[in-house]
Amino acid sequence: MRQGGADEELLAGTGTERDGLPAVGSGNCHADGGRAFGIADRTDDARNNGANLRIEAQQLFEDRAQALDDAVFDFEAALLGAESHGGRGNATSLLPSGYMTPGEGDRYSRQVLFGGIGAEGQEKIRQARVCVVGCGALGSFQAEALVRAGVGSLRIVDRDYVDFTNLQRQWLYSEADAQNEAPKAIAAARRLRELNSEVEIDPVVSDFTPSNAEELTDGYDLILDGTDNFETRYLINDACVKRCIPWVYGAAIGSYGLVMPVVPGKGPCLACVYPDPPAGAQPTCDVNGVLASTTGAVAALQVAAGLRLLVGWPDFVCRIHTLDVWEGTSKQVAAGTADSECRVCARRQFSYLEGQQKKPVSLCGRNAVQLHENARPLNLPELAERLRAVGEVRVNEFALRMTLPKYQLTLFPDGRAIVKGTTDVGVARGLYARLVGA
C-alpha cells in the first residue's frame, strides 16, 4: 500500500485495517456491525469529553476574570483609602464618602501614578502659577490641559475676540462665543472654571506689550507661548530672561510645528537660536491654513515640557522638536549652548522689552493705525499673489492695497503698513500678523 494514502482511502470509502484500527469502508460497516458501533461509541465519548472540556475551560476563564476584576477593584480601593472590602455587594458602604463626588485625589490619580510626576510632583503642579500668552489655537489647548492637570493659578492674556474661523482649531470656544464676539480670555476663563473650580483663573483682555510684559509675568513660575508673531515672542523672551522665568516657545503652520523650551541660565534663549526675526512676509494661518491636529500636537508638547519644568527637570537639555502631522514625521535636534554674544542673555540688552522697536501710531482723524516694520522689507508682487485668496488686492511698485469687509490694509516695500478701519493698535497689529506674519 502506498505511504501517506490513509486519508485519501478513507475519503474514497476503500480503507483497510491499518495499525490495529478498523477500516471505515462501506462494506466493513455491514460486515462487522460491532466494530462500527464500537467506533460510534468512542466517537460519542470523545464528543462528550470535548463538551466537558469546553465547560471546564469556560468556568476557568470566568473564575480568572473575576479574580482579575477583584484585584483591580482592590487596587482602586487602596488608591481611594479603603482598607478592605468584602466583595462587590458591600463595597459601596466601605469606600470613602468622597468617592461618588470626585475629590482632588480622584481627579489627579492617573497623573500621580505616572512615574515622572508622582505625589510630590502633583503637589508642585498644584502650587504652580502659569501664564499663557495668547489664547488662540495653541493657548486654548494649553490652558485646558493645564487646568485639567491641576495648576494652582492660570493667567490668560489675549487681546482678541472669538470669531467663527477660530472654531476649527481653538479648543475652548463655542458658536455662541463667536456669535457674541466674546473676548477670548473671558470666554476661555468661563469654560475653564467649569472644568476645574479648584484652579484660580485670571483672564486679562489686553495686548502683551513692553509696557505691561513684566507686570503680567511677575510672580509666575512658567510662561507658555500661544502667540502668532515673532515680535511678541521676542518680547516674552526678553521678559523671561530678565526675570529668569522658564518658558516654552511653540509655532504651527499648515501641518508643520516646532517646540523649544527655554530655561534661562541652563541653555540658549530664543535670541541665541534665532538672533533676528525672519525677513520678509511669512506664511500665516489666515493665508496658508493650519490643521487642528498640528496646533494640538504642538500645544501638547509645550504643556508636557512645561509640566516637566514645574515638577523638576534636573538633566534639562534644550532641544528643538519639529514635526509634520500630515507626513507623520518628527525629530529633535540639540539647540546647543547659550551664545556668548547673545544680545539678550549675554549682553542683557532687552530691546523688545524696552520698547526700542518703533511704536504703532494712530492716525488722527483717519480711523487708521500706522505700523512700522522697517526691518522687514516686503516683496509686494509675491505677497499680492498670496493675499488674493483672502481678499481684493491691488498692487504696484510703490504699495499694495488689500480690501477686507471691515478693514483696508496698505503695505509698503519697506515694511510699513496703514490699517484703515480701526484706531485700536492691537487690532491693527493682529491683522498685520495674520496676513503678513510678524
Explained architecture:
This protein has 438 residues and is an alpha/beta fold. Among the domains are: 226 residues, 3-Layer(aba) Sandwich (Rossmann fold); 75 residues, TATA-Binding Protein (2-Layer Sandwich). Helices cover 41% and strands 16% of the residues. The protein contains 17 helices and 14 strands. The strands form two sheets. Strands 3-2-1-4-5-6-7-8 form an eight-stranded mixed β-sheet, with helices on both faces. Strands 9-10-14-13-12-11 form a six-stranded antiparallel β-sheet, covered by helices on one side. Helix 8 packs across helix 15. The protein is globular, with a radius of gyration of 34 Å. The termini are far apart. The N terminus is likely disordered.
Class derived from helix and strand content: alpha/beta
Characterize the main sheet: 8 strands, mixed
List the strand order in the largest sheet.
Answer: 3-2-1-4-5-6-7-8
State the share of residues found in helices, binned by percent: 40-55%
Assigned CATH superfamily of the domain at 109-334: NAD(P)-binding Rossmann-like Domain
**Span between N and C termini?**
90 Å
The CATH architecture term of the domain at 109-334 is: 3-Layer(aba) Sandwich
> Helical region count?
17
